[in-house]
Design goal:
About 55% of the residues lie in helices and about 5% in strands. With about 130 residues, it is mostly helical. It has two domains: about 60 residues, Arc Repressor Mutant, subunit A (Orthogonal Bundle), CATH 1.10.10; about 35 residues, no CATH class. A two-stranded antiparallel ribbon has the order 1-2. Helix 2 crosses helix 3. The chain starts with 12 loop residues before the first helix and ends in an 8-residue tail after the last helix. InterPro entries: Tscrpt_reg_HTH_GntR (IPR000524), WH-like_DNA-bd_sf (IPR036388), WH_DNA-bd_sf (IPR036390). Keywords: DNA-binding, Transcription, Transcription regulation. GO terms for molecular function: DNA binding; DNA-binding transcription factor activity. This is Helix_turn_helix gluconate operon transcriptional repressor.
């Protein structure tokens, strides 16, 4: 798994880790059942506190995107019923409100959303 984080970013490192994993799932780079690095291994790779990686994995687990057990570690969860849809809609509404508050027109927002969706197209697929 190729994970990039920016230690100088205003986005907390745990959030960057979570976001990169979500993007990998969306692109099909991290399919269901794919094992993620252990907390210690990922923390060591970035020279960060293991608690930071743990926090990212906890978020992913709460969102139903990964499952963890002692035998297989943390793996990408199977695709299925999404129980967090209401929370996602709430975050989307807030994000759209922020765009409007900054003066973006509807077309600009839709164009930006379409562009971002294109960047998340699954590997090997055409849109």
């Amino acid at each position: 798994m190729d994970l990039e984080i920016d230690p100088l970013s205003p986005t907390p490192i745990y959030q960057q880790i979570r976001d990169r994993i979500v993007e990998g799932i969306a692109r099909g780079e991290l399919p269901p059942g794919q094992r993620l690095p252990s907390v210690r291994a990922l923390a060591g790779a970035f020279a960060i506190n293991p608690a930071t990686v743990s926090k990212a994995y906890d978020l992913l687990r709460a969102e139903g995107l990964v499952v963890t057990n002692a035998k297989s570690g943390t793996v990408i969860a199977p695709a299925g019923d999404w129980t967090e849809a209401a929370a996602w809609r709430s975050r989307l509404r807030t994000l759209l409100a922020e765009a409007r508050a900054h003066g973006l027109a509807e077309k600009q927002i839709l164009d930006a959303a379409a562009h971002q969706l294109d960047t998340l197209s699954p590997v090997g697929s055409e849109r």
